[in-house]
Predict the structure.
Amino acid sequence: MCSRNAYKIKNILSDRIIKTMSNNQFFQNKKTATKFIHAGAEPDPSTGAIMTPIFQTSTYVQSSPGQHKGYEYARSQNPTRAALETALAMIENGHYALAFSSGVAATDAVIKLLSPGDEVIAANDMYGGTYRLFTKVFEKFGITFTYVDTTNPENISKALTEKSKLIWIETPTNPLMNITDIKAVAAISKKAGTILCVDNTFASPYLQNPLDLGADIVMHSSTKYLGGHSDVIQGALIMNDVSLKDQLYFIQKSCGAVPGPFDCFLVLRGIKTLHVRMKAHCENGIAVAHFLRSHPKVDKVYWCGFEDHPNHMIAKNQMKGFGGMLSFTLKDTSIEAATKVLSSTKVFSLAESLGGVESLINHPASMTHASIPREERIKNGLSDGLIRLSIGIEDVEDLIEDLQQAIG
């Protein structure tokens, strides 16, 4: 009886793999909303459950040594994580994806592709946690990081040397909303024989698909828009090259920075509504950006949707919208004036992170980018008075009213 049940379950799992592959191929060619809702999903064959189950297990029983159903140990493989990785690849128009325990863990895996003596060309405006990882962790292992203004691709060309192995860019950048031409940088990277990795966290796969523009790897802090509800920490890498996938999977498995199945379930759930949420984030972002620009106490608004943004046309061409992230400064440049605004909002919550359904207000200099030395921040345009907003999907009239009373 037991052997017949085992045989039946094995056949069910095999059928599931075949059906899931066929299902994914079918939905890969569908329009965005349909693809996002069905990406990686296949009703559970044993129960008919429409959502992928949470496989909360650390190990898997084998019928004999080396004879198993595709899963051996949960650090190496987990069915819930496999469903998420399939979904991530689909929504980024990639062939392969790997999920990690955080965005920083995903970034860490990419740098571990390198060896002592290798060089990375990186954007001079980037998430503070990435800068901290590069400078405080990997520099001491003999990897060199050169920071340039990537909004002008020529700066990357000039910085390349025979030791350059990786180009790392964000677009839009955190927190100054700078835009880099992915296609132009990809051409430079290909000619130089380097890997191009694009942090696509601010745009999300709904607004931008760097692999389509020539990038080799796309990185996401899935904590942000992919999860979308401020309840999970996770990261992701998506790629097309099987060799890159194999190397990164080896790092993922060997170093062990993998997400748990419940976290994978939460991001799978978040992806299903990504398209709906991003539309709302974009709509609210437009309204808030224009409100701030017209406010008499606001000096500068950093948002790539303005036609006079230095690389607005590039953003317009490589993105489907301008997102829900923006930053601004006050005409009163004192830290006291910024602190008053940061501490006075009632709908916007003062907190790190971004991309959730609720609106957040953030002070990069003392929060998300505090690890970058002040002189470096100032040199790159990140002033002590800069305020960053993650525009949520509340009623936009309430968001504007909240900012109005906080700014005064």
Remarks:
- Residues 2-28 form the longest helix (27 residues).
- The first strand starts at residue 96 and ends at 100.
- Confidence is low (pLDDT under 50) at residues 1-21.
- The chain has two domains: 79-271, 274-407.
